[in-house]
Amino acid sequence: MMQVSTGGLTFQDIRECGKYYVDKSLLIKDILDADDRGVFLYTRLRRFGKTTNITMLDAFFNIDYSGNGWFDGLKIMDHPEYGSYMNAFPVVFLRLSTASSESFSEFLSSMRMIIVREYERHASIMEPGFMTPSERHLYETLSDDTAAPNRVATSVMVLCDMLRRSSGRNVVILIDEYDKALTNSFGMPHQDEIARFMTDFMNATIKENRSRQMAYITGVTQVAKAGFFSGANNLWVDNVFNTRSGERFGFTDAEVRDILSYYGHPERFDEVRDWYDGYRFGDVEVYNPFSVMMYVSKGFVPDSYWMNSGRNLPMTWMVERASVVGTQTVADLINGAHVRMELRDAMTYEGLRASDGVGLFSLMTMTGYLNAVPMGDGTYDVSIPNREVRGMVDILLSRNRMVGDDVFVRFNSALLDGDADTMVDTSRVCWSTAATSPSGTRAPTRTSC
Question: Using an 8 Å Cβ cutoff, are 22 and 259 in contact?
Fold first, then answer.
């Protein structure tokens, strides 16, 4: 019986080690049918297969893996018309999940090291005498951590030029978790510096790169400053609202039934559906793949496995600052309500900081805390997708600081009287007069801190 993979392994490792694999190889068909010279931005929830899929693309396109058997028996092999693309291109693969977000200098240093590792992964360009003097100087300043920001921003474009010169082929560019450092620095002073650098980096790597064949970029959210992807020709954005590749991320109903049958517990299907189903990508309903496989690996015990698998600083920040109306709506959703509302599929960080209701609920949808069904008039029917997420949102909401009217009056009176001690005492009160809903969820009172 095949072992369960609960994340962290590449597609190559899963296939080499004989782990259980849910076939998502038709993502390759989706991309090639759209545009074999395109730029693709795929945004999905954390732990929903983005990294496995991007390593699958590396395995398929990378010329260094010629002759592998990783795709034997997979659905993409039923389409021989794509055979000419298989292991036909040099690939630049940047894993930006390791980029530091503690400060701009640390972020830039980590970017230099990520790019250096990619240079050194390509033996052909490291041969003595291959690099021009300026290319060698760039590599050396990247290696000794002294390359200026503008040189770092253009360094992947230079790498692609060298790979094209070496192989005679254009380069496939893969960028995993492009938004990780931006998200993790949310609300910090240096986030704007990181955003400006990433704008220059993406323009050079994607837009201005004459050696690019195609580019595939992943992230959790389509959130960026204006101009982040401006000018990128043939840009294809696929987020939770798009229908093109809905079932390529997460598990479908049939795939979950197959998993449970394979591991000998088909009778557990209703339990899995209650805990981990309910996400909607385009017009496809899917299950949380990480939680499903954790459920199997933990002996079919339901639990909130997804909760501790990552963090979402922007959403935590927004919930903490949500209006009373917004907080009440979240409480209603936890208690099983369906709410009809407008949503956005792309936002700027400035828009997130404004913390309006549309921004909050759009972000909750894009990051997996809400399910949104389009109603055909520009609005969506929004609800909590499943039991696991309901518990997570309940915990998140319970951390929101709310006060009752009496505390608010005391605080303002103390402010007018100059009574600092009372102001401090009342400011420490959280949820002091909050009501309790029938399900145990705290419902906010009228006045927010």
Answer: yes
Give the integer Cα–Cα distance in Å for 238 and 349: 20
Q: Burial, 384: exposed, middle or buried (Cβ in 10 Å; 0-12, 13-18, 19+)?
A: buried
Amino acid identity at 122: H
Q: Is 134 left (phi over 0), alpha (psi -120 to 50) or beta?
A: alpha
User: 203, 209, 181, 241: which is closest to 42 by C-alpha?
Assistant: 241
Q: Pairing mode, if any, of strands 379-383 and 371-374?
A: antiparallel
pLDDT digits (tens, 9 = 90+) for 241-251: 888 899 999 99
pLDDT (tens digit, 9 = 90+) per residue, 205-227? 999 999 999 999 999 877 655 56
What pTM did the predictor assign? 0.86
C-alpha dist (Å) from residue 146 to 134, 156, 161: 15, 16, 22
SS (H, E, C) the chain: CCCCCCCCCCHHHHHHCCCCCCCCCHHHHHHHHHCCCCEEEEECCCCCCHHHHHHHHHHHHEHHHCCCCCCCCCHHHHCHHHHHHCCCECEEEEEHHHCCCCCHHHHHHHHHHHHHHHHHCCHHHHCCCCCCHHHHHHHHHHHCCCCCHHHHHHHHHHHHHHHHHHHCCCEEEEEECCCHHHHHCCCCCCHHHHHHHHHHHHHHHHHCCCCEEEEEEEECCCECCCCCCCCCCCEEEECCCCCCCHHHCCECHHHHHHHHHHCCCHHHHHHHHHHHCCEEECCEEEECHHHHHHHHHCCCCCCCCCCCCCCCHHHHHHHHCCCHHHHHHHHHHHCCCCEEEECCCCECHHHHHHCCHHHHHHHHHHCCCCEEEECCCCEEEEECCCHHHHHHHHHHHHCCCEECHHHHHHHHHHHHHCCHHHHHHHHCCCCCCCEECCCCCEECCCEEC
Q: How many CB atoms lie within 10 A of CB 72?
A: 8
Cβ 39 vs Cβ 215: under 8 Å: yes
Q: Which residue has the tokens 């399900």?
A: 439
